[in-house]
Amino acid sequence: MIEEIKTKALKEGVPIIKDEGLAFLLNYIEEHDCKEILELGTAVAYSAIEMASISKDIHIDTIEKDEEMYTQAIANIKEAGLEDQIDAWFMPIEEFRSDKLYDLIFVDAAKAQYGRYTEQFLDNLKQDGAMIYDNMIFHGLVYDVDNISSRSLRNLVKKIIKFSEMVHNDERFDIMKFDNIGDGILVLTRRKSGT
Ligand SMILES: C[S@@+](CC[C@H](N)C(=O)[O-])C[C@H]1O[C@@H](n2cnc3c(N)ncnc32)[C@H](O)[C@@H]1O
């Protein structure tokens, strides 16, 4: 069933996480025993279903603002029998508020907003939790930004580069970057006090 969701998504041009990125994410969840997960950017719930399928103890809140995507996501979650584990929220991420603390926040929505999302959800991250960001090399375009002819695309890619530099220089965080995994993955954790 998950293969069908993936095939359909790829056929219809729905942007879902690449295989290597997904493998990294699932491995991270298992290794760090993540149970409460917040996902920014549901699309058709492909990654949410994959994450929830790791263990019955995992719960996911996932946010999507596109109605068509959300409707498809709800249908896919139901078909996968994961309604108890996945709560899909139909709203702009910017409006989502919660008191919950998460082990993992998977950031996979508007790339230009990664800095904003970090600040918005930092208080929802457990002390030893992590934020994982996808598309950090944006199809390799971050390496060749000056040759991007579309101005809007160039600006978007510049924002991704700026975000990467910003968190790198932010003393609150430790980051690990994996440019060679999928479309580029960044893992952000809180720096332990005193270091
Ligand atoms: C890359 S896709 C998510 C893919 C999904 N995580 C997966 O791998 O299966 C990004 C999604 O984020 C949604 N999105 C973008 N900006 C958003 C916002 N501000 N609020 C809510 N959803 C947003 C888009 O509509 C799109 O469906």
Indicate the structural class: alpha/beta
Uncertain residue ranges: none
As a percent range, the share of strand residues is 15-25%
Number of helical elements: 6
Largest sheet: 7 strands, mixed
Report the bound ligands by name, code or SMILES.
S-adenosylmethionine
The CATH architecture category equals 3-Layer(aba) Sandwich
The arrangement of helices and strands along the chain is: HHEHEHEEHEHEE
Radius of gyration: 16 Å
Reported by name, the CATH topology is Rossmann fold
What does it look like?
The protein has 195 residues and is α/β, with parallel strands linked by helices. The chain has a single domain (2-190), classed as 3-Layer(aba) Sandwich (Rossmann fold). Helix content is 35%, strand content 22%. It has six helices and seven strands. The protein has helices spanning 2-11, 19-31, 46-52, 67-79, 114-121, 151-168, and strands at residues 36-40, 59-64, 86-90, 102-107, 125-133, 173-178, 185-190. Strands 3-2-1-4-5-7-6 form a seven-stranded mixed beta sheet, with helices on both faces. Helix 3 (46-52) links the parallel strand 1 and strand 2. The N and C termini lie far apart (46 Å). 35% of the residues are buried. Bound molecules: S-adenosylmethionine. S-adenosylmethionine is lined by residues 15-17, 41, 43, 46-47, 63-66, 69, 92-94, 108-110.
